[in-house]
Every structure is written in C-alpha cells, then in structure tokens.
Design goal:
Elements (H helix, E strand, L loop, with lengths): L2 E5 L4 H5 L15 H14 L6 E4 L3 H11 L5 E3 L17 H7 L28 H14 L8 E5 L1 H8 L8 E3 L2
Parallel strand pairs: 1-4, 2-3, 2-4
Antiparallel strand pairs: 1-5
Helix pairs in contact: 2-3
C-alpha cells in the first residue's frame, strides 16, 4: 500500500492570517490561488495510480480533493485527520450544510458536530487540547492499516500531517507517507 499525504491549497484564512487576531473565517474555502495550486498538483497525480482518496470534511480539503481527483478516483470524506481546532477556519459545518455544497459526496456518516465542539459548543472557537488532538491523530494513523493494498491519497491539514510526519507541508505539497 502506498499512502500520499496532500495538504489542502491556500485557504481564505491562510491568505489573510498574519498571526494576530483571528479574521473569523469559519470553514475557510480555497482562494483562487488555492484552486491553482490544486490544479497544478493534479498534473503530478496521473503517474501515481491513485485508486482511493480520503479527505477531511473541512471545505478547503474537499475543494482540493475535487480539483485534484475528480474523474480520477473516488473521494471519501472522513474525520480523524481534520485540523487542530485553534482558529475559526478549523470549525466545521454540519453534514447537511456540506451535502448542499457537495451533493456528489456522502456525509451522512458524520456526526452533526464532527469537529472539536465540547458540550455541543457548535461554532464557537474552543481550542482543541493537545492531548485530545494527539489521540485523534494516533487513532487515524492506526486506522490506516485497514486501507488495503491500493494507492491512497489523503487530503488534509498542516498540523495534522505535522503530528504524523514531524514537519509542516506547504499548500498542495505531496508527501509519500508509506
């Protein structure tokens, strides 16, 4: 089995966040540059023989997945490798909201609040504790052993991949994990 990690393209949050105050862009979508980065990454995917794509439910990851892999491999939405919740862009949307924007994908297996939302906090930005994040990522990595022998692309986020591989990927950077 070969697994490739791909960080999403530039999001609206990435484009404006300078390390100061949170610009309050919830579930940030891709910028035009983010779509260009994903389109460029698509060119390099043809030779990798990807048979399955797993994407985070955050909009920027879904948009990246669809731009790179539509018509190449089926796209499956999963939680576990979604971003560490530390800013507004990391707060997700309900399965119904995602389904309305991406009707060709399946979201009904996701809980209503699949992001870090303690005690039903919904769209509040409540930082995910590091041990909770690390446990979630460890469970995701453990589940990778069940994927089978096909080549898989996993579209996700900087902090999640950094927790797994030890360094930050650039937007739309491809990293062969296994």
């Amino acid at each position: 089995m070969t697994i490739y990690f791909i960080r999403h393209g530039q999001s609206e949050f990435n484009a404006v966040f300078q390390g100061g105050g949170d610009p309050m862009i919830f579930d940030a979508p891709l910028t035009p540059l983010g779509f260009e980065q994903a389109a460029e990454a698509r060119k390099s995917m043809a030779d990798l023989n990807i048979k399955r794509v797993i994407t985070s439910p955050l909009t920027r990851a879904i948009q990246t997945s669809k731009t790179i892999f539509d018509g190449i491999a089926p796209i499956e939405v999963r939680t576990g490798h979604h971003e560490l919740l530390s800013h507004s862009c990391d707060v997700g949307r309900t399965p119904a909201e995602l389904q309305a924007d991406f009707p060709d994908l399946t979201f009904d297996h996701l809980p209503a609040e699949w992001w870090h939302a303690p005690n039903g906090s919904g769209r509040e930005v409540i930082r995910e504790p590091t041990p909770v994040f690390q446990n979630r990522i460890a469970n995701f990595v453990s589940d990778l052993t069940t994927l089978g022998d096909e080549a898989v692309a996993i579209i996700g986020h900087g902090n999640a991949f950094q927790e797994i591989i030890g360094f930050m990927l650039h937007n739309c950077q491809v990293h062969q994990y296994r």
